[in-house]
Amino acid sequence: MAKYTMSAIKADLSAVMGKEAILNGNIPEAYTHDEALELDPIDPLGVVFPTSDEQVADLVDYASHSNIALVARGSGTGLSGGARPVTDGLVVSFEHMNRILSIDTIDQTARVEPGVTLAQLEEALAGTPYFYPVYPGEMSATLGGNVATNAGGMRAMKYGVTRHNVLGLAFVTGSGIRARSGGAYVKTSSGYDLTQLLIGSEGTLALVTEVLVRLSLRAHTRTLILASFRNFEDLANAVVSIPERGLLPSILEYVEATGLAAMAQHAGVSLGVSANVAATTSAYLMIELEAMSDEDLSWQLNEVMGLLNVHHSTEQYLLDEGQRQGLINAREAAFWTVKALGATIILDTVVPRSQLATLFAGAASCAREHDTLLVGTGHVGDGNVHLSLFASDPVECHAAATAIVHLATSIGGAVSGEHGIGVAKRQLFLEQEPPPRLGLLHSIKSVFDPDNLLNPGKLL
Ligand SMILES: Cc1cc2nc3c(=O)[nH]c(=O)nc-3n(C[C@H](O)[C@H](O)[C@H](O)COP(=O)(O)OP(=O)(O)OC[C@H]3O[C@@H](n4cnc5c(N)ncnc54)[C@H](O)[C@@H]3O)c2cc1C
Asked: Does domain 342-435 have CATH number 3.50.70.10?
């Protein structure tokens, strides 16, 4: 990359973006990092704020001629360093491209600019029977960031992750091609699927300028069960049994007992768990069931309660509405709790559900071997666990994390279930990718972004 100073490129950029659209000099600290715990901040050359896809295309053209890297940024809530700047590049913040372009209740879609946040979309849909079901814990995250990371979250077991809920995109590739993919239809067999290719590409292939999402109908009724387990094996068996019986909870999460206590305290919510149950519990399941009718809900509830008993759940609490929302909020905020408590690394490995018991036991022994404290929570219904690692020695902590990821991939899993690779997991990802597949990924990158302008040093 060329070594430009911001003052040298400012005049050129003003012509492309307009003066107000550029920040240089005192770049606010927020733009120097995302929320990945283990990465230091980096000062970029500057931050630009495009307001239209034409401007994005002009920016890519300018960056290409000047050989300046572009790092896309939504809200910077990513947990893998994907939006972390590079020293000789510009941060492209999409926060000014934040318009909801249309909501179509007939085709059940919403068309939004990439800087629209999940909270904004939820608010816009509030008066309708529809909602956007992808629910990563942080509602300030943008749709563009969700697309680039293929964000998942708590409702993926029933509703799928971002890639199951995005029908089309508008984008500008690193080579300057401005294009659209997909449309307001729910199926297509019309050639290579560029929408799906770009979802999860972490801003390394194209800058996304518009997102077309599908909407779902809201359920009429719901309930949340908190179920305690003495050991992880019983908990894992209970998880597997639920979809095996044909049930699809809208939330199926696990929280280790220490984690639940900290989260509930942090969020100021009382769950009514008795002291003797808390004392003998290793972990809890949070199971939210929802339905269009009371009859369906009570049928699901009976089935799940039966399965929890079969798998030795020691106690089940049916939460009232205040507790239900309090616990979901506390779970959403789990990251802030473990960050405040000093976690060094958070892993988000994913394994087949059938391998959860092996992962729980193996991860605990990897942590013990490396003198690292491990506290787990996560989307266990998807086989996706969030393991927070705490250690005074970062080298030991890293060794524990590496061993856990190797274990997960050796039992049929993958490095990241939803947070993406970015910088934080790049080394682990590259080690695990078989050379033929890695070769294909590099070939795709070179077609979309031949000069490696977009998010260099991330993912690949
Ligand atoms: C408290 C908390 C809880 C979370 N819980 C979850 C969870 O349950 N599930 C989950 O999946 N994630 C979760 N996350 C992670 C995070 O919210 C998601 O990764 C989210 O998708 C990031 O969105 P963002 O707008 O903040 O993107 P950023 O962090 O700004 O960027 C993420 C990536 O997207 C790229 N990007 C951003 N915008 C564009 C664009 N327009 N075009 C191309 N590339 C772009 C960036 O370059 C980067 O690689 C959580 C984070 C926090 C802080």
From this structure: no
| pLDDT at residue 261 in the model | 86
CATH architecture assignment, domain 100-217: 2-Layer Sandwich (3.30)
Q: What is the per-residue pLDDT for 1? A: 47
458 has pLDDT over 60:
yes
Fold type of domain 6-96: 3.30.43
Domain ranges of the chain: 6-96, 100-217, 221-331, 342-435
Atom of ligand 1 minimally distant from the CA of 418: 11
How many whole angstroms separate alpha carbon 322 and alpha carbon 276? Answer: 23
The class that CATH gives domain 221-331 is alpha beta
- Of 18-32, 151-165, 265-279, where does the model show the most confidence? 151-165
- Sequential DSSP letters for 166-214: EEEEEEEETT--EEEEE-S-S---SSS-HHHHHTT-TTSSEEEEEEEEE
CA pair distance 58, 333, nearest whole angstrom = 39
Task: List the beta bridge partners of residue 283.
Answer: 229, 256
Question: How far apart are the C-alpha atoms of 209 and 51, rounded to whole Å?
Answer: 10
Q: Report how far ligand 1's centroid is from the alpha carbon of 181 (Å).
A: 21
Ligand 1 neighbours, Cβ below 6 Å, are 34-35, 71-79, 82-83, 94, 114, 136-138, 141-142, 144-146, 148-149, 151-153, 202-203, 207-208, 335-336, 418-419, 455
Testing ligand 1's pocket by substitution, the residue of 70, 118, 149 carrying the most ligand atoms inside 8 A of its CB is: 149
Residue with tokens 């000069």: 451
Tell me which of 48, 60, 70, 77 to substitute to probe ligand 1's pocket, judged by most ligand atoms within 8 Å of the beta carbon. 77
Whether the domain at 6-96 and the domain at 221-331 fall into the same CATH topology: no
